[in-house]
TrEMBL record:
Organism of derivation: Jeotgalibaca ciconiae
Cross-referenced SMART domains: AAA
Keyword ATP-binding: yes
Name of the molecule in the record: ATP-binding cassette domain-containing protein
Classification via InterPro entries: AAA+_ATPase (IPR003593), ABC_transporter-like_ATP-bd (IPR003439), ABC_transporter-like_CS (IPR017871), P-loop_NTPase (IPR027417)
Gene3D superfamilies with a match to the protein in the record: P-loop containing nucleotide triphosphate hydrolases
Chain ranges of the ABC transporter domain: 5-246
GO molecular function: ATP binding; ATP hydrolysis activity
Keyword set includes ATP-binding: yes
PANTHER family cross-referenced by the UniProt entry: SKFA PEPTIDE EXPORT ATP-BINDING PROTEIN SKFE (PTHR43158)
Coiled coil: none
Alphabetical list of Pfam families matching this protein: ABC_tran
Length: 264
């Protein structure tokens, strides 16, 4: 499996409005991608196509050797981990569960663990390993409602890793976090990529692109502005076009940072 994701001439129309336009994108073995764009640019729609929750109006999609329209999408999803700050909309249910149960629930893609779900000894071993790797073993028995926002995000990342996915999609995982919690979450990315899990990281903010990220996809108004190796793609001109405002990019500690160019 050389290509993890392949989108060819993909368009998607909803209620007569073209949301995605002729998207061509490939994610290959050994690559870890960031997807950047404004709100409404099409980032989430691309994710929904990749995970099979939306089917393209036109074009071809192949994800993890699964050709859409020819193979089982639910089986494919078992190989994809998904973590998003939007999962906290299930907070009322998560809040009643201990941390380890939430991590275990990733096996079933459920919101917490329930009595009708079979949890095997090796599942407990896997969950304990994840808690150790994410440096939150001390939270194992703590109830979710009592965690900080940064701790909650790490628990949700652990949940996404439970099935040892080939592909992990992180959709704005640092949204709403303070700077310390953000950096703690970003530190985890390096550990994830070392364990042969390929990463697609969606964000508005280029400073969240750590050394672990190798490639960038820039999206604007449902179309691709540019894609490729991050050092080549993250230029002043391309980011100014993507964000619709003049910006400058600088690199510090192998991470990009952005400055708005205000008119004097």
């Amino acid at each position: 499996m050389d290509k993890l994701i392949s989108l060819e001439q993909v368009s998607w129309t909803r209620q007569g409005q073209e949301i995605l336009k002729n998207i061509n994108w490939e994610v290959n073995q050994g690559e870890h991608w960031a997807v950047l764009g404004l709100n409404g640019s099409g980032k989430t729609s691309i994710l929904n196509i990749v995970t099979g929750y939306h089917f393209p109006t036109s074009g071809n999609v192949k994800v993890l050797d699964t050709t859409f329209g020819e193979a089982s999408i639910p089986k494919m999803r078992e190989r994809i981990g998904f973590m998003s700050s939007s999962l906290e909309k299930f907070g009322a249910t998560f809040n009643k569960q201990p941390v380890k149960n939430i991590v275990l629930s990733g096996k079933f893609s459920s919101v917490g663990v329930y009595s009708n779900q079979e949890i095997l000894p090796e599942d407990h071993e896997r969950a304990d390993e994840i808690l150790r790797n994410l440096r939150i073993e001390y939270l194992r028995e703590k109830t979710y409602r009592y965690l900080s926002q940064g701790e909650k995000r790490r628990v949700l990342i652990g949940r996404a890793l439970m099935n040892q996915p080939d592909l992990l999609i992180m959709d704005e995982p640092c949204s709403g976090l303070d700077i310390l919690s953000r950096e703690e979450v970003l530190d985890i990315m390096d550990a994830i990529t070392v364990n042969h899990c390929h990463l697609v990281y969606v964000t508005h903010y280029i400073e969240e692109i750590t050394e672990a990220i190798t490639h960038v996809l820039l999206v604007k108004d449902g179309s691709i502005v540019a894609q490729g190796e991050k050092e080549k793609i993250l230029t002043d001109d391309r980011l100014s076009e993507t964000y619709k405002i003049p910006v400058s990019v600088r690199w510090e500690e192998k991470r990009p940072w952005i400055t708005i160019n205000r008119k004097k």
